[in-house]
Design a protein that fits this description.
The complex is a heterodimer of chains A (130) and B (179). By secondary structure, chain A is of the alpha+beta class. Chain A contains four helices and five strands. Chain A has a single domain, classed as Glutaredoxin, CATH 3.40.30. Chain A has helices spanning 4-22, 37-41, 44-57, 98-107; strands at residues 29-34, 62-67, 79-83, 86-90, 116-117. Chain A is globular and about 45 Å long. The termini of chain A are far apart. With 179 residues, chain B is an alpha+beta fold. In chain B, 37% of the residues lie in helices and 25% in strands. Chain B has seven helices and six strands. Chain B has a six-stranded mixed beta sheet with strand order 3-4-2-1-5-6. The longest helix of chain B is centred in the first third of the chain and has 14 residues, at 4-17. Classes of the chains: A alpha+beta (130), B alpha+beta (179). At the A-B interface, helix 1, helix 2, helix 3 and strand 2 of A face helix 1, helix 4, helix 5 and helix 7 of B.
Chain lengths: 130, 179
C-alpha cells in the first residue's frame, strides 16, 4: 500500500473540508441505497456505483451509503434521499436516470415525481408543495 | 444471481446489518489444489445457536421492521455452493461475530464467475465510512491484500469526513483495482 500518498491526500482534502464546513448554508444530504438480496438481484450494486460516480462528478456534498432491504422488493432497486428531516424514496432505478435524479432533487431541490414512491415516513405522502 | 461477487455483497450487507466494525473477505482460487474458497467474516453481533440453525431457512430473517419476514440471502448462497459440489459452512457466536464460508472445486462446470469482486469491494468501502474492510485474494501465483485500517490510522480523526472525498476514493480505486 502506498500509505505515504495519504498524507498529501489528507492535506489536499482538508482544505476542501474546511471550505465546506465554513459554508453553513449547505445542509446535509444523504442517499441510502437498499442493498438487500432482492435489491442486489435487480441491480442495486450498479445503482450505488453510479450514484457515487455522479455525486463526485457533480461535486455534491452528499453522504452515500447502503442499508438492508427497505421491504420494497417489488420496485427494486430503491434509494432514499434524506435532507434535514425529510425523506424521499425513489424506486425502479436505472443507472442512466441517476444524473437526472441528482440534478433535480439535490442540485435544484425539486422532487422527481415520475420516479418517486410514496412510503410511510416519506414526505411524498404529504401534498406536494410544488 | 450469476456472479460470486454479488453473493459476497449480499453476505457483507448481512455483516453491516449486524453492526460489524470490521469485515474480512477472502477469496482463494487454487488450481493446484482444485479448490476455490470464499469467506466473509465479521465482528458483528453474531447469532445464537437457535437463530443460526434457522439462518439458512428461507423463511427466517432478522428483519423486525416489517411483517414480511423472509430472508433469502444465505439460502441462496448455500444452494449455489452445494449446486457446484461445494461445502457451505457458517459459524457464529453471540457478541463475537459470524463467519460464512463456501468452498467448491476449481474445475466445476457449474461454478459461477467471480465477477467484478474488486469493484464491488470498492463500492462497499466507500459507502461505509464507519466500517473497516480487509480483503485478501490469493491464487497459486500471487496474493493481494487490501486493508482500510492503516488508512484510517493514517488519517486519524479526519478519516470519516474525508472518506468520500474524490481524492481518497481515487486512492482506494488505485489500491484495489489498478494495482
Amino acid at each position: 500500500m502506498k500509505l505515504d500518498e495519504l498524507k498529501a491526500i489528507r492535506e489536499k482534502a482538508a482544505d476542501k473540508i474546511a471550505k465546506r464546513n465554513a459554508d453553513a448554508s449547505q445542509s446535509e444530504w444523504k442517499i441510502v441505497v437498499s442493498m438487500g438480496t432482492s435489491g442486489i438481484l435487480y441491480g442495486a450494486r450498479d445503482i450505488l456505483k453510479k450514484i457515487l460516480e455522479e455525486v463526485e462528478s457533480l461535486e455534491l456534498n452528499v453522504l452515500v451509503t447502503q442499508s438492508g432491504s427497505f421491504g420494497l422488493d417489488d420496485i427494486e432497486p430503491v434509494c432514499a434521499i434524506y435532507h434535514n428531516d425529510e425523506k424521499i424514496v425513489y424506486g425502479k432505478l436505472k443507472p442512466e436516470m441517476i444524473r437526472e435524479l441528482l440534478e433535480t432533487q439535490i442540485v435544484n431541490g425539486n422532487i422527481l415525481t415520475s420516479y418517486r414512491v410514496a412510503v410511510p415516513g416519506d414526505i411524498g405522502n404529504k401534498p406536494a408543495s410544488e | 444471481m450469476y456472479e460470486l461477487s454479488l453473493f459476497v455483497l449480499d453476505l457483507v450487507q448481512n455483516s453491516i446489518t449486524a453492526d460489524a466494525e470490521i469485515i474480512k473477505i477472502w477469496l482463494f482460487e487454487f488450481e493446484s489444489e482444485n479448490l476455490v474458497t470464499i469467506t466473509v467474516a465479521d465482528n458483528g453481533k453474531g447469532m445464537s445457536k437457535e437463530v443460526m440453525g434457522k439462518a439458512v431457512d428461507p423463511f427466517m430473517t432478522s428483519k423486525t421492521e416489517r411483517k414480511k419476514k423472509i430472508g433469502l440471502g444465505l439460502p441462496f448462497f448455500k444452494q449455489l455452493i452445494e449446486s457446484c459440489e461445494g461445502k457451505f459452512r457458517i459459524k457464529s457466536k453471540l457478541g463475537i461475530g459470524t463467519v460464512v464460508t463456501g468452498s467448491f472445486p476449481y474445475s466445476n462446470v457449474d461454478q459461477p464467475p467471480v465477477g467484478n469482486l474488486e469493484e464491488t469491494i470498492l463500492s462497499l468501502v466507500i459507502a461505509n465510512p464507519g466500517i473497516d474492510f480487509r480483503y485478501t485474494r490469493r491464487n497459486d501465483k500471487k496474493e493481494k491484500i487490501f486493508d482500510t485500517r492503516p488508512v484510517r490510522k493514517m488519517l486519524g480523526s479526519d478519516a470519516e469526513i474525508m472518506w468520500q472525498s474524490s481524492e481518497l476514493m481515487e486512492w482506494f480505486r488505485n489500491e484495489l483495482i489498478e494495482s
